[in-house]
Fold this sequence. Notes:
single chain, alpha+beta, 2 domains, five-stranded antiparallel beta sheet, 9 helices, 27% helix
Amino acid sequence: MNDTTEQKVNPILLEVFKNRFSSISEEMGVTLNRTAFSPNIKERRDFSCAVFDSNGDMIAQAAHIPVHLGSMPLSVKSAIETIEWEEGDMVMLNDPFKGGTHLPDITIVAPVFVGKDKPSFYVANRAHHADVGGMSSGSMPLSRSIFQEGLIIPPLKIVEKGKIDQKIMGFLLNNVRTATEREGDFAAQIMANITGVRRTTQLIEKYGLAVVDFYARALMDYAERITRDTIKRIPDGTYEFEDYMDDDGFGHERINIHVSITIHGVKAILDFSRSSPQVEGSINAVYAITLSAVLYVFRALVERDIPTNAGCLRPIEVITKKGTIVDAEFPSSVAGGNVETSQRIVDVVLGALSQALPQAIPAAHQGTMNNVTIGGIDPRNGQPFAYYETIGGGMGATAHSHGESAVHCHMTNTLNTPVEALEYSYPFLVTEYSIRRGTGGKGRYRGGDGIVREIRLLADSEVTVLSERRHIPPYGLFGGSPGAVGRNIIVRDGRRQDMGGKFSVSLKRGDIIRIETPGGGGYGS
């Protein structure tokens, strides 16, 4: 722990700073949400914002996307190590092997200078862009290498001394399918950081740098103490669990994710080293994703209102083996690892903890984000379009309640794209959007039901779907039945075809894509 102690800390000021740092992150998110161009950001809110100290340790994050929790700090640290900072700079990156997750998630970092020759704090945001190039529209392909997935951006200055580098911006926009939308979303990310820098500077001007820095460290210590108390309530012992990914899209099936969790006093050690080797398809997860999934689970166990920051991870050790499905090495394909494998890592960690905390852990949720990307030329204006969405499903039941239906679960915290916004923005007609009744697992408490989303295409389109739990159902707990598996169906020339969990296909105007998402597991016999 750091050298701040409870005797030194004014508890009232600690609460003030907890809310001030969180409000900075939240206001950054409001700015990004209101100024973005793409439906994926302005409607679904597929982004996260946070404040960091001078070392790149996270002080506070807004209540945005859990999969960004543990990964964005690694991107910030990578930027700090790489860049010579000046006031007014901003650095962009998306490299999954330098703290990123997958290529559509682009992080922009800005320093906060206050009377020193190096930054005192940093603010950053990460947003999922609906296209960053690559072999298929939406940049979520069935790929065999990261080079097929889009532009790989190392840490580089997109803004220098307050001015956007137009050469770099031009290069980026020349390599994506929807340049106008991307430029608008980049501008929104930059504006969000300007908001964060301004508010952090105002906080320092009011309280002084020494006080703000002290309470930033005190908040991390506080989060650490509460997390340790939470771990201490878990019975000591070793708990193992494993589950499987359906496939990687190229014939490799039942890909194992295994965890051994050792609880010893106030410390938790999670060992994933017995998980399967990385695979050919794009479901490989980099270490940052595994870290995010672990942080999410333990943060969810904390019942008190604490800031989500670097202190939450101090009592937790995550062990992986390089070259495995949970710690993939360059240049493996990783587009689906962020969205699909992250969900299975959560299932596995929760499954292990259910042995120690049966009353606190839910049955498995739908276990997928049901990623759909559609791209083509919009006949209404002759311009390219790229649509991306994740679709909710059923939440697992608990020892006390039924699972919720038709919700985004665990590592995703996005909204849906409303039908009206979807049909306005893209050449689509939504022919069904409903709850998939009866798909939650039976039990003393039922799992939540999935969703049906059916879209008729009004333009020739390239469609890619990355989804899971199409073969291996979400598990029930303590006698509860598993949830129903999902289905992906296309209707082409009037003929229905079950496409499996992962596919890429060219469809014609009038064809239909139908996604039926899984239900959650039941709890209790």
